[in-house]
Structure to design on (399 residues):
């Protein structure tokens, strides 16, 4: 398999994108399955007064990154290295770039401490204030704090003269594509890309969705009018598509569900819960209700990243589990925990639990969700093999 690809693209007169495609990372953040891969996008502003590098890439790609960067610039000429976010998928090569020249690293005040602790950084660091502007040749760089998108130190940069918003994690996505801009994709790939983006939003940004609303309001209150949005993951957005990507973020951060969308997750040790779910889904289908099903059995495991992405805007979630050691099945506990962290609360959740010698799992799952603030919950527990006895009660709740 191709493990890493680097492309450099001229975005505007003096602005370049260096895109590192990562198909080697199987679990993003050691957590989320990403068979579609991910890119880390670094940006370079090349002006005679001094070059500005915005973000770097993951430290597994240091040598390739330095080589590609060197094709565009002389690293000794880097005047500023702007850090939008210290998560190591972007900050992994800061120390190396600092050692190859003498750049001043600019970022939120928290960045200074993180640079030292993460990398033993000994170079020059200068904190920037919220909405501070600096002039580099004819370009004005405005640094705008966007806290909790995705860490507290996160900020974006608006380059006024290019009308470019360098947005780091914000408006980012999973997926490695040959295109640079979203509008270059054919329609079927646009649909696929929006799914990757929603999955990224749900898994990485979803926990901070209230901060998305606050930060979008903040950006729209400032005198900025981007013509191009340049995230640090995935594709860039330009012209009329800028309002489309902002619209997607507004929709997802609102937590609104898609009407009629039902997603089923089941964890079945010996097949009883699976049989219950299959019968349940068939009954729903007879009533015109389609479902997406994620399964965890002794032979199959769905991707949890897909599950979290799909559940995010579902109107109804059905969580079905076996009972294990008088508790919820361990993987059901884990998935419920992720749902409780990443998913908007305005949903109806049916907890179906099968048991051998005694009910308990349903109550345990309900406790996790209740404590997390979910309120529309129903528990239906059944002895393994006897799910038909509770089917109408379960169907009645969901339909
Ligand atoms: Fe792409 Fe939060 O790092």
């Amino acid at each position: 398999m191709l493990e890493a690809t680097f492309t450099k693209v001229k975005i505007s007169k003096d602005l370049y994108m260096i895109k590192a495609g990562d198909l080697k990372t199987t679990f993003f953040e050691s957590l989320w399955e990403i068979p579609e891969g991910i890119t880390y996008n670094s940006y370079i502003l090349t002006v005679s007064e001094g070059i500005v590098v915005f973000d770097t890439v993951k430290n597994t790609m240091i040598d390739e990154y330095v080589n590609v960067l060197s094709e565009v610039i002389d690293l000794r000429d880097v005047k500023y290295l702007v850090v939008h976010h210290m998560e190591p998928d972007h900050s992994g090569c800061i120390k190396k770039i600092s050692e190859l020249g003498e750049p001043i690293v600019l970022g939120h005040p928290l960045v200074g401490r993180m640079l030292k602790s993460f990398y033993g950084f000994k170079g020059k660091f200068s904190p920037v204030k919220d909405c501070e502007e600096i002039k580099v040749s004819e370009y004005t760089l405005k640094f705008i704090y966007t806290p909790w998108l995705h860490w507290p130190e996160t900020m974006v940069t608006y380059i006024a003269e290019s009308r470019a918003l360098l947005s780091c994690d914000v408006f980012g996505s999973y997926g490695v594509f040959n295109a640079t801009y979203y509008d270059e994709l054919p329609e079927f790939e646009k649909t696929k890309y929006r799914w990757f983006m929603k999955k990224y939003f749900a898994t990485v940004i979803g926990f901070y969705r209230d901060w998305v609303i606050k930060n979008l309001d903040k950006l729209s209150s400032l005198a900025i009018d981007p013509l191009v949005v340049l995230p640090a993951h995935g594709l860039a957005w330009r012209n009329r598509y800028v309002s489309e990507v902002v619209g997607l973020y507004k929709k997802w951060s609102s937590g609104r569900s898609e009407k009629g969308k039902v997603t089923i997750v089941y964890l079945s040790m010996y097949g009883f819960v699976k049989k219950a779910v299959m019968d349940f889904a068939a009954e729903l289908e007879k009533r015109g209700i389609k479902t997406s099903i994620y399964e965890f059995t002794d032979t199959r495991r769905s991707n949890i990243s897909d599950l979290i992405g799909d559940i995010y805007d579902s109107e109804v979630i059905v969580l079905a589990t076996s009972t294990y050691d008088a508790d919820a099945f361990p993987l059901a506990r884990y998935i419920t925990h992720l749902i409780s962290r990443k998913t908007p609360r305005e949903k109806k959740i049916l907890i179906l639990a099968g048991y051998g010698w005694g009910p308990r799992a349903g109550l345990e799952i309900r406790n996790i969700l209740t404590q997390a603030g979910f309120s529309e919950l129903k528990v239906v527990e059944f002895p393994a093999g006897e799910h038909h006895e509770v089917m109408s009660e379960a169907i009645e709740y969901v339909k």
Observations:
- The CA atoms of residues 18 and 121 lie 23 Å apart.
- The chain has a mean pLDDT of 96.
